[in-house]
Amino acid sequence: MKNPPALAAAAPAYRLPAEWEPHAATLLAWPVNQADWPGKFAPIPWVFTEIVRHLAASEAVHLLIPSAAARPKIADLLKRANVDVSKVSFVPLPLDRGWMRDCSPAFVTRGSKLGAVQFQFNAWAKYDNWKKDAKSAPFLTRRAKAKALIPTHKGRRVVLEGGAIDGNGAGTLLTTEECLLDKNQQVRNPGFTRADYEAVFAEYLGIRKVIWLGKGIAGDDTHGHVDDLCRFVSATRVVLCMEKDRKDANYRALQENSERLQGAKTADGRKIETIALPMPAPVIFDGMRLPASYANFYITNSRVLVPTFNDPNDRTALGILAELFPKREVVGIHAVDLVWGLGTIHCLTHEVPLAGAESTC
After folding, report:
1. N or C, which end of the chain has less CB nearby within 10 Å?
2. Which helix (H) or strand (E) is 203 found in, with range?
3. CA 70 → CA 29, 76, 84, 205, 339, distances in Å?
4. Looking at 103, 241, 347, 361, which residue is catalytic?
5. CB atoms closer than 10 angstroms to residue 245
6. How confident is the model at residue 361 (pLDDT cuts 50, 70, 90)?
7. Alpha-carbon distance 83 to 46, whole Å?
8. Model confidence over 117-137: pLDDT tens digits?
9. By the 8 A CB rule, do 49 and 14 touch?
10. Superfamily for 5-353?
């Protein structure tokens, strides 16, 4: 396929940093919607407390809370878990659900300048409760004192969630056809083609090469987010979830994605190395398969937070990621309860990059 003209731009105005580049802070929203964890909400605040504890040991945390009145109770929970609350900013902002990876702006940089790409959020083209979440992007843009960038294409606002894309910080992006190109289910931008998305990514995120994978993992209500499937861990390396059980619902799709990555190259022509990341055994609750995946890890300034599932492969996955991030402490976060909300650590968090600072993995 011939690349659209936008991909030929030599010097994009803004660049999407890689997650391992220095952060100014991490965004996280305190859980308030009990319907996200029906019948299992009680342990969720404590799981969040553990996440905040590890985030605060690495960088500033901007914790979105439902109201100023909720602050004392939440702060007390954090203190009881030995969280350094001096690293936590409590930001009152009512939300519908608060999966920050998807409703936050995509922060981009240009030298010392910070931009915020405000894609339209519509709850994965699936749920009705999204209007408060959709207001978070402009609010967070103003709070970060970033330049607001509103993506439009073919005369309309572009719909996209952060979990649908993953970048290497050097012009290359991962995404899936299932999420962005399906014409019948959870359609974000009706009529958009690969070329349309690639033009948008080039213009607003500085992307020069898009690697299209096929399907996401079973149980994913986003219909194919790449952050449960495949992630950059350096400019030229990705981890890709792989399933050994041929009878498992994920086996064939993951094999196909592995084949697609064979021979894949970055925007600057370097070959991409693919490292297999195991899958946990299926996590099923109330008769429903959940999107349990070690790929939903989050990279902080000094740690990598990895969801774990009381599975023998927990140790294997943590070991693989520890080898890939030797300068960071790799920490497992118990996510058996958390994944009942159909997402885990990466889905809940979003980095605010430190403009003007770049680093290699």
Report:
1. N
2. helix 194-205
3. 13, 10, 18, 36, 25
4. 347
5. 11
6. low
7. 12
8. 999 999 999 999 999 999 999
9. no
10. L-arginine/glycine Amidinotransferase; Chain A (3.75.10.10)
